[in-house]
């Protein structure tokens, strides 16, 4: 008796894991593919093609009024399905109604506002927020830091497998060296506590668990900001201590912004924006800032020039006389 073929969404998960995409990407892609199938009354994607994709994307733009980035995310998920799972060529370009891209300027805090917020954050979430501003990291990059990624001697942080599956080096602020060392002492005691109870394993990327069988319990591979509790790994089923959840940092930041009375929409990513803008204000070259942020194109970094004191083409307002 031949084994039953795997369900389509399970095949999608297998293909995503083969490409070493993150678990969040896996959840997002599977979610969009499921919505696409339900939109077409549970018709199998093999029986559909460009016309059905166009209809779904148009529905998202016209009826759901999603942003351009959200529509592009759905499109990427469907392209992955057809190209990587079904091995089906979609032929000509998809001529769906596209959501209008928004040209927004990022929220940037002043240095005084940053100090006001940082003075109100504590413990691990507070230390994460300080690293986001001091090193220009994205939230997930900060949460996924391993012990071996902190180079205290060279005062630098190695950001591995960042957006676009690339790595980069950025600065480690001198003011965070002592707090991080003290924090790691606590983390090491927590790790030893787990080892003593038969745990202490941590998720390793790619095939490192097979290549180095005991590396998942090694100190250097532990997360710098581990979760307060152990949980079951959704992929392997093993009970491990994952990194701190992003919601913990977001709640801490929200409370600090409220206490500081700052009338701006502040997110964790705002500190990355502020990092770049303040470096440019201090006279650093935009190419240097581009490398620290990990932008492929300098045009992406150029957006931060909008808040510089020398912005506005040097024009003086008539109201100022």
Question: Would you mind describing this structure in some detail?
Answer:
It is a single chain. The chain is mainly α and 321 residues long. The protein has 2 domains: 8-85, Tyrosine recombinase, N-terminal domain (DNA polymerase, domain 1); 111-305, Intergrase catalytic core (hpI Integrase, Chain A, Orthogonal Bundle), CATH 1.10.443. The protein is 47% helix and 4% strand. It is built from 13 helices and 5 strands. The chain has helices spanning 8-18, 23-39, 50-62, 68-85, 111-118, 123-135, 139-143, 177-196, 208-211, 246-260, 268-281, 286-293, 298-302, and strands at residues 150-151, 156-159, 168-171, 231-232, 239-240. It has a 3-stranded antiparallel beta sheet. The protein has a two-stranded antiparallel ribbon with strand order 4-5. Strand 1 and strand 2 form a beta hairpin. The protein is globular and about 60 Å long. The mean pLDDT is 89.
Note the topology.
Blueprint: H1 8-18, H2 23-39, H3 50-62, H4 68-85, H5 111-118, H6 123-135, H7 139-143, E1 150-151, E2 156-159, E3 168-171, H8 177-196, H9 208-211, E4 231-232, E5 239-240, H10 246-260, H11 268-281, H12 286-293, H13 298-302
Antiparallel strand pairs: 1-2, 2-3, 4-5
């Amino acid at each position: 008796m031949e084994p039953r073929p795997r369900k389509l969404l399970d095949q999608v998960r297998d293909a995503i894991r083969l490409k070493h995409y993150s678990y969040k990407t896996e959840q997002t892609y599977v979610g969009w593919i499921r919505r696409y199938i339900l939109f077409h009354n549970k018709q199998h994607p093999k029986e559909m093609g460009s016309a059905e994709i166009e209809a779904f994307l148009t529905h998202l733009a016209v009826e759901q009024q999603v942003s351009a980035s959200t529509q592009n995310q759905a499109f990427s998920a469907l392209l992955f399905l057809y190209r990587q799972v079904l091995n089906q060529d979609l032929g000509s370009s998809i001529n769906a109604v596209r959501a209008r891209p928004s040209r927004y300027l990022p929220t940037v805090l002043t240095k005084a506002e940053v100090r006001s917020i940082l003075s109100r954050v504590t413990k691990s979430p507070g230390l994460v927020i300080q690293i986001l501003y001091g090193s220009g990291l994205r939230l997930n990059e900060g949460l996924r830091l391993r012990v071996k990624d902190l180079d205290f001697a060279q005062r630098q942080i190695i950001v591995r497998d960042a957006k676009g599956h690339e790595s980069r080096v950025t600065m480690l602020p001198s003011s965070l060296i002592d707090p991080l060392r003290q924090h790691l002492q606590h983390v090491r005691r927590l790790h030893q506590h787990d080892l003593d109870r038969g745990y202490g394993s941590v998720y390793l990327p790619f095939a490192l668990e097979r290549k180095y069988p005991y590396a998942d319990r090694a100190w250097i591979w532990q997360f710098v900001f581990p979760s307060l509790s152990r949980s079951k790994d959704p992929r392997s089923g093993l009970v491990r201590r994952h990194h701190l959840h992003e919601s913990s940092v977001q709640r801490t930041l929200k409370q600090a912004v409220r206490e500081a009375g700052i009338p701006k929409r502040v997110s964790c990513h705002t500190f990355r924006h502020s990092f770049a803008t303040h470096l440019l204000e201090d006279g650093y070259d935009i190419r240097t800032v581009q490398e620290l942020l990990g932008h492929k194109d300098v045009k992406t970094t150029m957006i931060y020039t909008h808040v510089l004191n020398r912005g506005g083409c040097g024009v003086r307002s008539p109201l100022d006389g």
